[in-house]
Specification:
The chain has about 700 residues and is an alpha/beta fold. It has four domains: about 100 residues, Nucleic acid-binding proteins (OB fold (Dihydrolipoamide Acetyltransferase, E2P)), CATH 2.40.50; about 120 residues, no CATH class; about 190 residues, Rossmann fold (3-Layer(aba) Sandwich); about 180 residues, P-loop containing nucleotide triphosphate hydrolases (Rossmann fold, 3-Layer(aba) Sandwich), CATH 3.40.50. The protein contains 24 helices and 22 strands. A seven-stranded mixed β-sheet has the order 6-7-4-3-2-5-8, with no helix packed on it. The protein has a seven-stranded parallel β-sheet with strand order 12-13-11-14-15-10-16, with helices on both faces. Strands 17-22-21-18-20-19 form a six-stranded parallel β-sheet, with helices on both faces. Helix 18 links the parallel strand 19 and strand 20. The protein starts with 14 loop residues before the first helix and ends in a 9-residue tail after the last helix. The relative contact order is 0.09. Adenosine-5'-diphosphate binds next to helix 11.
Length: about 700
């Protein structure tokens, strides 16, 4: 019987009790599910080391040698056994902190030592090693790579260890060898030189050597990414067929704003507006991602596109993740639109809009007198009804889930066009997965005349020097941001840090005015403080990361980041983007402790080395790994990757996407006989995994 349908309880070496735990702990229901539990690491048991060759502290090794001396120290529970191991040339130490009484050692016997070395007192130590007399070492023990499997506490409690996993999987080996239906067509396997599923599963669990293990894993990673892409792209293809509002006219409002701008659009801004306008003309619904570095002028692009919609008789909205940002957008748009007089009506709706003020907004949206609405999540409320919503901008998308995006669809009889903008660039391969269902436009050019921000990394000790520098900047008429980390907006300690910092600055700069803003403040107070800083009334703004996104005060030239080690790279870059917006030279000062971890040092070095958001995004992905990034993106990606890694398998992502695209270009609905295997596998995945794109229309 097909392993994909064989109940796990009826597999060799499993049984009812283990089956229950496998089901509840790992969601393993079938024999194939068990085979899909891939090892998380391998230890090379075919290689024998000499003590002189040891380098890494954290890799398992095996060494042949003799035990020359041993003794016990301490009594009772604290008793410990120490031994000296000699490989013919060098010595190392073996230590058992417990269970030493069960270790039987003999002189003049050759042992196979297996364990993880660490350096202690300038000599290699093995704590609780495995020690097997050579006479008892079977060939299997030293054959090839030994796989290690993840297990949970509950599994261990009933005796399912990594070794048990291996035994259970070995029980399926004869069936596996007899062959399993492949999930990928022979043509694709051939084109990308991939192993068959049968060979890949055999070699991922029982690899002959490193090469076959790596080839097996590459095939399984490709497969995983391929089906993710098949899901995403099928969704995208399906949506491409949806009818959308047609907006062919480039009208008077668009032209009026364009002419009133005090500067030219950059080439990249023009190109992107063309790309979007092509979508608007197409008769199909647009789903587009707009990427651009901090300060590249995404907001203006969004506004011009909103005007395209308005000129065609539709309404538009811009949805921002925070009230501060919504307010800021509202102010920015109003000032851009001032020369147009009454031609465009813009309104603002956020959580703090009073019920009384909501009434005219609700009415204006219904009767069409409001053309553009700016707001936060409040826009999604059912009460917000439109006359003819046609274009939606979602700014700084990472704070919105996919499901929320879907909510906007019910606001008109056809789904509006959707433009998603990100705060900072996202690495290409991550975007392909997290935003893989969107078409991408990139602004890869900054407005001319910007002086790159100078970034300097200081340790906290240099406070006096930094204050002198700040004084000088303020005397020259500039303004300064001082940002404190706030991991969770409600953490009291962080607020205390902020308050202390504020007090300290008040003492150090008695002649200047200082604003403070944080997430716990009432929206109106926040607004007031931001306003005071924006108008130049206060010289220093002390804040938590609430100012991270979007805030625009061109006269501010210094961004000082306290405890910079507590920020991620993209956050640091986003914060740095708050300065360098005017004509003056700007500075970003990263303050950290003296003692830094290796990763923190790298983060600081990257910040100092480059201003390029795309490069920083790539570095961030490498340093943090994709799981972390997706977490902060809160993208709501409805799938987990088990073997592929978006940080290190970028090339496979690209290949898998291409392979999926080739198939769907020919057969968007997977109806061909040839593509039946893909449909079948998608069905299996839908049942066994949590991801289900069909819910997200
Ligand atoms: P982003 O949202 O991409 O980080 P913004 O839209 O906030 O960037 O733009 C940053 C600043 O640059 C704003 O003050 C904006 O008015 C200005 N700006 C936008 N486009 C241009 C341009 N083509 N030339 C000069 N300045 C521009
Ligand atoms: Mg912005």
């Amino acid at each position: 019987m097909d392993l994909a349908y064989r109940d796990i309880a009826y597999c060799k070496n499993v049984g009812a009790k283990r089956a229950d735990i496998l089901r509840s702990e790992l969601n393993v229901r079938t024999a194939m599910d068990l085979l899909r539990q891939y090892p998380y690491k391998y230890i090379d048991r075919s290689r024998f080391y000499k003590i002189a060759e040891l380098e890494d502290e954290d890799t398992y090794v095996q060494i042949v040698g003799e035990v020359t001396e041993w003794h016990t120290i301490g009594i009772g529970k604290a008793q410990r056994l120490s031994a000296t191991f000699f490989d013919g040339n060098h010595q190392c130490e073996l230590v058992w902190f417990r269970g030493g009484q069960y270790v039987k050692l003999q002189r003049g016997v050759k042992y196979l030592l297996f364990g993880k070395p660490s350096v202690f007192n300038h000599i290699y130590n093995f704590v609780h090693p495995e020690l097997t007399p050579m006479s008892k070492v079977t060939p299997e023990m030293t054959q090839g790579l030994e796989p290690y499997y993840n297990t949970t506490e509950k599994m261990k409690r009933i005796g399912i260890t990594s070794k048990t996993m291996r035994t259970m999987i070995a029980g399926l080996l004869p069936d596996l060898k007899a062959g399993v239906p492949d999930t990928i067509g022979a043509d694709v396997l051939q084109r990308y030189r991939l192993m068959s599923l049968r060979d890949a599963l055999i070699n991922v669990h029982f690899p002959k050597d490193t090469t076959s293990m790596q080839n097996a894993r590459a095939r399984l990673k490709f497969e995983e990414l391929f089906f993710v892409q098949l899901q995403i792209l099928r969704q995208m293809k399906r949506r491409e067929q949806f009818p959308g509002f047609t907006m062919p006219i480039v009208g008077s409002r668009f032209h009026a704003l364009y002419k009133s701008l005090p500067f030219d659009l950059t080439g990249a801004q023009k190109r992107v507006i063309h790309e979007i306008h092509d979508d608007l003309k197409s008769g199909h619904q647009m789903n587009r991602l707009l990427q651009g570095d901090v300060g590249s002028g995404k907001t203006l692009v969004a506004l011009l596109c909103c005007l395209l919609a308005v000129d065609n008789g539709y309404q538009a909205c811009i949805m921002a993740p925070t009230e501060i940002l919504a307010n800021q957008h509202y102010e920015t748009l109003k000032s851009f639109l001032a020369p147009l007089g009454d031609a465009v009506h813009v309104a603002l709706l956020t959580g703090s809009t009073t019920p009384k003020n909501r009434v005219p907004i609700h009415n204006g949206l219904m009767n069409g007198t409001i053309h553009i609405l700016i707001g936060t999540h409040a826009l999604l409320e059912d009460k917000v009804q439109w006359q003819n919503l046609g274009f939606v901008v979602i700014d700084e998308q990472h704070r919105f889930g996919v499901a929320q995006r879907a909510k906007l669809w019910t606001k008109n009889q056809m789904p509006p066009h959707i433009l998603v903008m990100t705060a900072t660039p996202i690495p290409r391969t991550l975007a392909m997965t997290v935003y893989g269902d969107l078409h991408v436009s990139i602004i890869d050019e900054l407005p001319p005349g910007r002086k790159p921000v100078q970034t300097i990394h200081y340790s906290l000790q240099r406070r006096a020097q930094i204050y002198t520098f700040m004084h000088k900047q303020i005397e020259e008429g500039r303004q300064i941001y001082v940002v404190y980390p706030l991991i969770k907006e409600n953490e009291k300690m962080d607020l205390q840090d902020l308050q202390n910092g504020f007090n300290e600055l008040c003492e150090a700069f008695p002649e200047y005015k200082i604003s403070m803003v944080h997430g716990q403040m009432k929206a109106s107070d926040k607004d007031l403080q931001m306003q005071r800083f924006a108008s130049g009334e206060t010289q220093i703004l002390v804040a938590t990361t609430v100012i991270e996104v979007g805030v625009n005060v061109p006269n501010a030239t210094v961004m000082m980041i306290q405890n910079a080690e507590r920020f991620g790279l993209s956050q640091l870059h986003q914060l740095r983007g708050r300065v360098g917006r005017g004509a003056d030279q700007s500075f970003c000062i990263l303050l950290t402790d003296m003692e830094l971890s290796k990763d923190t040092r790298k983060r600081m070095d990257i910040m100092v080395a480059t201003n390029d958001g795309f490069r920083i995004a790539e570095a961030d992905l490498q340093l943090r790994g994709p799981g972390d990034l997706e977490g902060t993106l809160q993208s709501g990606t409805p799938f987990d990757l088990h073997i592929a890694n978006l940080a290190t398998d970028g090339q496979l992502v690209t290949l898998a996407r291409q392979a999926a695209l080739d198939i769907l270009d020919q057969d968007p609905l997977l109806e061909d006989e040839m593509n039946r295997i893909y449909k079948r596998q998608l069905d299996i995945l839908r049942v066994s995994q949590s991801y289900n794109w069909s819910e997200i229309s």
